[in-house]
Amino acid sequence: xxxxxxxxxGFSGAVIARRLSECGYKCLVIDEREHPAGNCHTExxxxxxVMVHKYGPHIFHTNDERVWNYINxxxxxxxxxxxxxxxxxxxxxxxxxxxxxxxxxFGKCMSPAEAKAFIESQARMDIxxxxxxxxxxxxxxGDNIYQGFFAGxxxxxxxxxxxxxxxxxxxxxxxxxxxxxxYFNHPYQGMPRNGYTAIVENILGHENIELRLDCKYEDLTxxxxxxxxxxxxxxxxNYDLGRLGYRTLDFEPVHAEGDFQGTAVMNYPDSEIPFTxxxxxxxxxxxxxxxFAKTIAFREYSRSCGPDDIxxxxxxxxxxxxxxxxxxxxxxxxxxxxxxGRLGTYQYLDMDVTIGRALDVAxxxxxxxxxx
Length: 372
Ligand code: FAD
Ligand code: UDP
Fold this sequence. Notes:
Blueprint: E1 4-7, H1 11-22, E2 27-30, E3 42-44, E4 51-53, E5 60-62, H2 65-74, E6 77-79, E7 84-88, E8 91-95, H3 99-106, H4 112-122, H5 133-140, H6 142-158, H7 168-171, E9 188-192, H8 196-204, E10 209-212, E11 226-229, H9 233-236, E12 246-257, E13 265-267, E14 277-280, E15 294-304, E16 313-314, H10 318-333, E17 337-339, H11 341-344, H12 351-371
Parallel strand pairs: 1-2, 1-11, 2-10, 7-13, 11-17
Antiparallel strand pairs: 3-4, 5-9, 6-9, 7-8, 12-15, 12-16, 13-14, 14-15
The structure holds flavin-adenine dinucleotide and uridine-5'-diphosphate (UDP).
């Protein structure tokens, strides 16, 4: 049997390679970058010593016990709870929208029941089946909170009016009528003590896996039994039908002494501010943050992704959905290739979902081999 090729050394590729290699299959994992871990890559900043998430902040959270056990097998996860703040018109609020945010924003001191009734009085109850981001916001929080916290941020993040975006983007965020300010609802949450790259390296650390970095799929000449492809779907087909739309991010570093903003993530929803948020990475590692005299933070700017940029967020507007379907049809016709992951399936996938799906894809492939 020829080797199995896995394109991309992010979580998708690494998890599939590990499962197959443990079953005795020889795998070649390639990545065009000079490091594994894909967009979850972490490295120490030379100046401050802080562990930096090079392609944007990554917080691990899941309700999938299988995935939580899996990641803990390959590295130590430290306790971490994501508590996000937002600066709106010169005031600092707590995110996601909770009782503290509501009371502070409206200058009140309401109980949970009072706040619920108050927000319902602001909400557009006539919108019965919200389809767009804007409708979802107006239906559940009303125009004041929508304008304050969501409209500007979302326009900056996605480059289009929220009335053109699907409601699903906002559904990612909870709305709470108590003082719970954990950004996520999931029971398991944490940060890897030694960064994500160490975890992915451990996943890839198996005698049946060869990891080849600085290697583009397009340059491979060997023959393979099967290919798992976690690169961009449209790139696989040479962008024949056109490019799927992505947002890319620019990270502007800020070097400072001590503590820059006192928290890991500060959002900036105001339209007049060009960036969406500032992430100060030492605060993602509370167990070691006090040991650094210096700090590093990144202002995050979102813009349309050009041919030479890194694709971050799939946009999935109507035009993209139609193009996606055409590419998906071609992908299905491709023999011995399975498209996986965030780029290969053109979907916004969190790390836990990525790992869960990769485990399922590997299992399905093994099952297929047994049935053959
Ligand atoms: P990737 O990590 O993108 O890996 C794909 C790899 O394939 C890349 O390394 C790339 O170089 C390589 N590649 C592509 N094409 C080729 C080719 N032709 N030849 C060779 N190599 C190729 N998830 C969370 O759970 N929590 C978070 O807080 C979180 N924050 C995020 C913040 C941002 C800004 C973004 C964009 C995503 C965030 N995510 C978060 C999602 C997370 O990044 C993904 O779940 C994860 O990266 C998906 O892994 P993957 O292996 O599918 O893709
Ligand atoms: N969002 C917003 N204001 C905020 C935070 C989030 O409008 O202060 C919107 C924005 O459109 C974003 C979406 O809610 O894309 C989902 O937020 P999340 O924090 O999940 O975004 P991510 O971390 O994926 O960028």
